[in-house]
Amino acid sequence: MSGFKERIFSGAQPTGNLHLGNYLGAIKRWVELQDDHECIYCVVDMHALTISPDPAELAQATRELTAAYLAAGIDPKKNMVFNQSRVIQHAELAWVFNCIARIGWMSRMTQFKDKAGKDRENASLGLFAYPSLMAADILLYRATHVPVGDDQKQHLELTRDIAQKFNNDYSARIADLGIGVEMAVGDETVTGYFPLTEPMISGPAMRIMSLRDGTKKMSKSDPSDLSRINLIDDAETITRKIRKAKTDADAIPSELDGLAGRAEADNLIGIYAALSGISKEAVLRDFGGKQFSEFKSSLADLAVAQMSPITQEMRKLIADPAYIDSVLKDGGERAGVIAEQTMKDVRNIIGWLQN
Ligand code: AMP
Ligand code: TRP
């Protein structure tokens, strides 16, 4: 039990090449959650700076990602949709968290190690502190749940560590000000200012793999365009990529066990399951014993039927940048109100004089 109001926060980076993994692992579920939750969906343009994009490309990618959110069905009136840099409190809270988080915690982040590569000394400080800004995104709204793909799990664990250390370090001050909230931690009930946010990572789509190599995740940065289905691909391209997707020579198994050691087969079955909203077991019940050629043509039809309306809507929205900008402005204004309430408390807690 937690005394915090249930609130969903999630975000994606505007870095181009939005793909099926982003859609199934994140955005599609965000749409489902908006019916019965208060949701905040952010385009994290401050995080995008860690890969030093060209300014014109960053602005364009920000609008495109926003268009993708809206085209997928996120309602910008019901929810808050905005780009992160508009609500400057994200940067302010990230600084506070830079002073809470330890260098050792950041050094263990696998995403940092992957992205920094061999020349770690030359990686930007922003790339290193990336998870601290992500914790700030979430905790600025005291969000209780964060729907993301599997690759973000470690960052969400770190977010909890930061919240917990902040709550501990300032426990006396939080109690004095009377602004703590009760929450359960294991068997105990503790009081803190920030919630210990729960990740929402489940279902068949949490880790969509490359269509060319079932051991690598589908990614924006893969040099092979055949490895991913982009949200902007037309029907013909989607069909061609699925037809060319790597598989093995065996037929489709009837049971989950039969997918063991067959990463590419497992991935395509998972994509089918996620697109149609059924379990992988159910897909195998329908296709068990059939050849991949037959399955791929059903999968292509399904993908085109689901993705084409989104792609078309996305193109329409991208052609109206003034509308996109007005959505981001409105979302930013509403998010900014919550953000400022939190920061007022935080400044007070940590002893920053404000008047
Ligand atoms: P990013 O584009 O890296 O900002 O990611 C946006 C969201 O998409 C995050 O929730 C990721 O976890 C999710 N995501 C990215 N790639 C994949 C993938 N291959 N499979 C499932 N989810 C993914
Ligand atoms: N790091 C996330 C990604 O690459 C994007 C992100 C930034 C995010 N801040 C967030 C996701 C807060 C969820 C909540 O996918």
TrEMBL record:
The UniProt similarity line reads: Belongs to the class-I aminoacyl-tRNA synthetase family.
Q: Which GO terms describe its molecular function?
A: ATP binding; tryptophan-tRNA ligase activity
- In this chain, ATP is annotated as bound at Q13, P14, T15, G21, N22, G149, D150, D151, I208, K217, M218, S219, K220, S221
Q: Where is this motif: 'HIGH' region?
A: 14-22
Q: What is this protein called?
A: Tryptophan--tRNA ligase
Does the entry feature the keyword ATP-binding, yes or no? Answer: yes
Q: Which NCBIfam families match?
A: trpS
Species of provenance: Paenochrobactrum gallinarii
Q: What does this protein do?
A: Catalyzes the attachment of tryptophan to tRNA(Trp).
Subunit record text: Homodimer.
**Alphabetical keyword list:** Aminoacyl-tRNA synthetase, ATP-binding, Cytoplasm, Ligase, Nucleotide-binding, Protein biosynthesis
Highest taxon in the source lineage: Bacteria
Please give the InterPro entries that the UniProt record associates with this protein: aa-tRNA-synth_I_CS, aa-tRNA-synth_Ic, Rossmann-like_a/b/a_fold, Trp-tRNA-ligase, Trp-tRNA-ligase_bac-type, Trp-tRNA_synthetase
Q: Gene3D superfamilies of this UniProt entry?
A: HUPs, Tyrosyl-Transfer RNA Synthetase
Name the gene for this chain: trpS
Q: What PROSITE patterns does the annotation carry?
A: AA_TRNA_LIGASE_I (PS00178)
Residues the entry annotates as binding L-tryptophan:
D137
